[in-house]
Amino acid sequence: MLDRIRSFLAVLEAGSVNRAARQLGIAQPTLSRHIQSLEQEIGGPLFERDNKGMLPTDLGFHLRDSFEPIIKNYDLALADVCAFAQGRQQQLRVGYLGMAASKFLNPALSKLKAAHPDIQLLLFDQTPAEQLEALQAGKLDVALIGQEGAAQTNDFYKRRAAKLGVCAALPAEHPLAAEPELSLAQLKGERFIGVTPKDVPGRNHWMSELCNQAGFKPRFIRNSESVTETFTLIAGENAVTLLPDYISSPPPPGVVFCRLTDKWAHWELFVLRQRGRGSAPARQLVDWIGI
Q1: Neighbouring C-beta atoms of residue 23, cutoff 10 Å
Q2: Do both 133 and 178 map to the same domain?
Q3: Strands 255-260 vs 142-146: parallel, antiparallel or unpaired
Q4: Whole-angstrom Cα distance, residue 11 to residue 31?
Q5: What percent of the chain lies above the pLDDT cut of 70?
Q6: What is the pTM assigned to this prediction?
Q7: 264 phi and psi, to 5 degrees?
Q8: 259 and 176: one domain?
Q9: How do strand 191-195 and strand 219-224 relate by DSSP bridges?
Q10: Helix (H, G, I), strand (E, B) or coil at 81
Q11: Which of 34, 136, 160, 191 might form a disulfide with 7, Cβ 3.0–4.6 angstroms?
Q12: Looking at the structure, do residues 157 and 274 belong to the same domain, yes or no?
């Protein structure tokens, strides 16, 4: 069942079976069978299927909320046991923001693997709050985290990996959706989707500060618990949000991305590691991310 839960979470995150299958490196029919088998075992549909993609049902959201923490804790526990058995120096445990991985983390990991072909990389797609908790518990060696999470602590070595622009995520039917770029002031009066503070502490404050600089106060109508839920709420509630401009994949059905032209609108990506000398691979990875 564990593999089927992972398949479900991948489809939920990607918004389509085809996209999730490509990311997982498995055949689309195999992934579809995983989802169908899981729905049969649980006793209800996990997705609404239409030409716009795969949208989670209430049951799907409940399954995610129930099992996603279990899967992440399982991965961390397994990594800790493997590290104990094989020795810490042979492993590197890395937490990261999933949507920033392809652009910033993956090139550095390729370089690291070439320099240390025998190292075992243990990778964890985690929220900023989960990364900080794992770092503090000694369960991560390196974390790729946003400025909001990095600002929460001074307990770790910290380096800025990138300074990025900002984009607005809008419903596909929004009057501004056809514009590739816009100024933040054009979103005055819009309804905003925020992020649950326990998952991404400081993100709503960051959005509010940007909007205040543009001359208005944002009206948050909902907080989401995941990127997937954010996109679902944007399309369903006819609302908008602000995102760091690091997303390389196309937006999900019903959502468009528009870059902000405001030069002062930016977001920073940081890499954290445990203080002290640390292992050579950990120090090298920190230095190589964002180069």
Answers
A1: 16
A2: no
A3: unpaired
A4: 9
A5: 95
A6: 0.71
A7: -85, -10
A8: yes
A9: parallel
A10: helix
A11: 34
A12: yes
